[in-house]
Specification:
Largest sheet: 6 strands, antiparallel, barrel
Oligomer: single chain
Number of helices: 9
Structural class: alpha+beta
Number of domains: 4
Strand order of the largest sheet: 3-4-5-10-7-6
Distance between the termini: 76 Å
Low-confidence stretches: 1-27, 38-51
Shape: flat
Amino acid sequence: MYGHSDEGRRNGMNSSEGAAPYLTSGKDPGRVWGAARYFLFILLCAFLAVPELRAERIKDIAKFEGVRENQLIGYGIVVGLDGTGDKGKTAVQGIANMLTRMGVTVDPKDVKSKSIAAAVVTATLPPFAKPGMKIDALVSTIGDAGSIQGGTLLLAPLKGPDGMVYGLAQGPVSIGGFAAEGEGASLQKNHPTAGKIPEGVTIEREPRFTLGNGDEIRLFLQKADFATVDGITRKINEEFQGEYAFPIDPSAVKVIVPPHFRENLIGMITRIEDMDVPVDMTARVIINERTGTIVIGNNVRISPVAIAHGSLAIEIMEQPEVSQPLPFAPRGSETVVVPRTGISINEQKASLVQVSGVTLGEVVRALNTLGVTPRDLISILQALKAAGALRAELEII
């Protein structure tokens, strides 16, 4: 019925009338379907090869201008210590000054107590802090006190960089450990000269805060990136259906407040923070040589390269021998210590291993085939970077 029967030829049916394209062209249906499947497979592979961008909320990767923390610092005195306080006169002078303000005249020379310690008190003032709110305080000794376990911080004013008092700290200090010492031994857990006072700071002054200028507000990224800024700009404009967001630089976006949000700035900020934007992270490898820790990012790639890694172990043994004089030896013979030194060298054999990887899983499997320790792996990664095979930033912390 498609133009290949005798009846069709007798009726002069044209190949273009009612004929399937692949039959009229003379191609085999199975071969055409196979070619189509192969083409779809190639498209799928190309799609899977595209690196996946992780979507993050704007709240997690950026902050609005003005929404920031502030640091507070002050001087305080910890009392009630069990003989582990300062041995010098730093805390004694502070106690004398405090008693003088309270109407008690005391000569600092007459104050000799190891139950007090001078300390620096710090705290972090959160955004939108209001008077009466409670925050944590960190107490750290500045003298030669051995421990502030069981101590109590006396009232200490905490000031900001502008010299104004923003909070008052007071309360029992918790070090989360202990320290004990005897004549011949000592035992310590955690750090006994620094402690914390949970909710030990009462906020007394509200810091000045400005959220934009009423017509526009700026959004600052925690990590500068061109692609992320562009994605945030596009997402805000799509959400508000207009040109309201403009990138300033790789770390900032200017947002013009829409007219219907002039009286509801909080609502606009809430909608922006809940938006999901694709985040393209830089390929990076972090190395901590002190601890032997290695962190490899998802976008790290290794070009095909061959690696041979071996280690050289040299062992030196000292075995001194004592040579004593024989019986009836001449007078003046002495005992002599003769050094005996043994040196052994062990060099492991290593063969070339091909290493490459396009995905994070392939990179990990390729590096694991080397069977080396983290310390050796650090040297290998540095060599890969020097050879240009490691396509990532190598950061040593």
